[in-house]
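Exercise 7b. C-alpha cells:
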C-alpha cells in the first residue's frame, strides 16, 4: 500500500517489539497515515493485535484516535474493532478515548 511505513507493517502483523522500538525511535510515526488514510492503530485494531493497540494509544492517544482516523472518514478503529468482534481492543480504545463511541462512520451505507 502506498504510504505504508514500517510502523504500519509492524502493526498489521502484530509485531509488538518492533512497534515498541519504532515508537521510541520516532513517536510521531504513530500519527502517520497511508494513502488510504489508515493509521497504524486502525490496522492493529482491524487485525486483533491488542498489545499493539495499547502501545499506540499510550504513545499518542490524542493523535492516533479520532473521527478522522477512519479510512477516508469511514470506520474508525473503534468501528473496525467492533465489526471484527475484538472486544478487548474496543474496550481499550473506549477507555482511552470515550468519545470514540460516538464517532460516526461517514461512509456506512
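Sequence design result:
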Amino acid at each position: 500500500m502506498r504510504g505504508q511505513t514500517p510502523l504500519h507493517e509492524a502493526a498489521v502483523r502484530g509485531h509488538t517489539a518492533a512497534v515498541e522500538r519504532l515508537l521510541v525511535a520516532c513517536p510521531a510515526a504513530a500519527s502517520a497515515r497511508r494513502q488510504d488514510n489508515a493509521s497504524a492503530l486502525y490496522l492493529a485494531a482491524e487485525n486483533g493485535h491488542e498489545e499493539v493497540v495499547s502501545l499506540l494509544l499510550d504513545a499518542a492517544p490524542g493523535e492516533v484516535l479520532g473521527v478522522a482516523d477512519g479510512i477516508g472518514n469511514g470506520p474508525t478503529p473503534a468501528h473496525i474493532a467492533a465489526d471484527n468482534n475484538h472486544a478487548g481492543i474496543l474496550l481499550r480504545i473506549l477507555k482511552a478515548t470515550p468519545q470514540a463511541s460516538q464517532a460516526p462512520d461517514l461512509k456506512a451505507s
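Instructor comment: The chain is about 50% helix and 0% strand. Helices lie at 6-13, 16-25, 40-46, 50-59, 61-64, 77-83, 87-96.
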